[in-house]
Amino acid sequence: MKSYSKKLLSGVGLVALMLAAVPVMNVCAANQSTTALPGQPVDLTYAAEKAVPAVVHIKYVQNSKVQTVDVPSNPFDDFFGDMFGFGQGNGSQKRQVQTPKKEATGSGVIISTDGYIVTNNHVVNGADELTVTLNDGREFSARIVGTDATTDLALIKVNAKDLPTLPIGDSDKLKVGEWVIAVGNPFNLNSTVTAGIVSAKARSLGANGIESFIQTDAAINPGNSGGALVNTKGELVGINAMLYSRTGEYSGYGFAIPTTIMNKVVSDLKKYGTVQRAVIGVEGMDAHRWIDSQKDQGKDVDLGTMEGIYVAKVDPDGAAAAAGIEKGDVIVGIDGKKVNKMAELQEILVNKHPGDKVQITYLHNKKKVEKQVTLKNTQGNTNVLKTADLDVLGATFAPVSASKKEQLGINYGLEVLKVGKGSFKDAGIDKGFVIMEANNQTIRTIDDLQNAVKSASTSKDPVLYIKGMWPTGKKDYFAVQVAE
Q: Is 152 labeled as catalytic in the residue annotation?
């Protein structure tokens, strides 16, 4: 379970749960009306019957591992070690510890009959084993197709056919006050259905990089993460992701990722293995929040509006700069659609691809300006980004041997066995070099290096900053290009 309490108001904790997924296939729901007349109760049985078979239980296992950690050393050892030239003299020592095996449970939503399942990134991140249990009791091992920490979504796959799915609804059409149900596996209680209403839309909590949550008072608890938020027509409208709580358990509100965001993320993960994110190139906040912050400092400001996005910083190479947007301007619309909050702007942009053209409406010195611009990716161009593999480095690797660890006085590392054509050769790294860090991440295994390469290859700065040691004991540093 993931906690965001530090990012919220004092005394209130935000706990991310293991909840649901979302279908990518549009399967038409039966023409059954579930809309009640004014004053009449709403029948949610149809929605529950559609949703329960398509929501799965996910068991997460992370195996025990040996890790090297810093532990406080004996102060007398430090003193005499410094005096006589032995020891580290920095108040700590490297020790190897055995981490405990970790197990957790969450939920997921089957989105295609051939076994694709949507869940939360925090449900599967770091897993060595994933076991999916269907509502009918069948169990399958699952593999991770792709993850996106920025939206907290993940796509996994089981080897199965003719699985039950949920039709995907349009979360944009949800209305505040509309009835919904949350389906998942809270506290390891399988196939649990709770009901409530949509309490708010486009809610931003500061938990993820991109978020525009559906807020609901349907009970969501630990284990619901990755589960389904479903409307009265039996359509998936959101993936349950977290709750708002003082205790870590449900106390009023839960939050789901809308299908408008999910559809794009899942499509990109299936096609490219990573999300093709279009960015506008600004940093900012809701205009009314910025105005309030200035008033708290005794400043009197007038932006010409209380709505829109106050621009605090502009990327000189981004789409916004090309439109003439400057610090202090206010973005009020995209493609003719009003945006009052940052969450609304993010929800629109997450459905765009680099290279797409949009019409930006903004206020400059209180005057309205409209410009058409071409959106770019995080690297400042319109190319398709694909996660790079180790092949881009042009080298082979193996965990450093015990004898070499002893020789070099180290406890971990990845040795370069062979270097051919590729980024390592271009950077000057040769056979025998021991990699110890990449982009500030400790490198113990080939998987560690692979993950570092993947992360760097789709970042704004597609470079791997490597620290390590030559067989002579000399430390060295390299910048390695990883973009394909």
A: yes
Residue that has been written with the tokens 């209180």 in this structure: 366
Structure confidence by residue, pLDDT tens digits, 48-86: 999 999 999 999 998 887 766 666 655 555 544 444 444
Residues facing residue 313 across a β-bridge: 283
**Mean pLDDT of all residues in 366-373:** 93
Express each pLDDT in 429-460 by its tens digit: 999 999 999 999 999 888 889 888 888 887 87
Q: Which of 225, 245, 423, 455 is catalytic?
A: 225
Which one from 57, 78, 148, 152 is the annotated catalytic residue? 152
A 10 A CB-CB count for 50 gives: 25
- DSSP letters, 48-100, are HHHHGGGEEEEEEEE---EEEEEEEPPHHHHHHHHHHT-S--SSEEEEEEEPP
Q: Which of 107, 122, 212, 423 is catalytic?
A: 122
In degrees, rounded to 5, the angle at the alpha carbon of residue 60 between the alpha carbons of residues 99 and 206 is 90
Phi, psi angles (nearest 5°) of residue 162: 55, 40
Active site residue 92: no
Q: Which distant-in-sequence residues (6+ apart) come within 8 Å of 3 by Cβ?
A: 13, 14, 15, 16, 248
Residue 118 CA: distances (Å) to CA of 105, 213, 419, 451, 453: 15, 17, 39, 21, 25
Which residues, 6 or more positions from 232, have their beta carbon under 8 angstroms from its beta carbon?
Answer: 34, 35, 42, 43, 44, 46, 47, 178, 179, 180
Which pLDDT band holds residue 384 (cuts at 50, 70, 90)?
A: confident
Q: Is 459 a catalytic residue?
A: no
Q: What is the pTM of this model?
A: 0.73
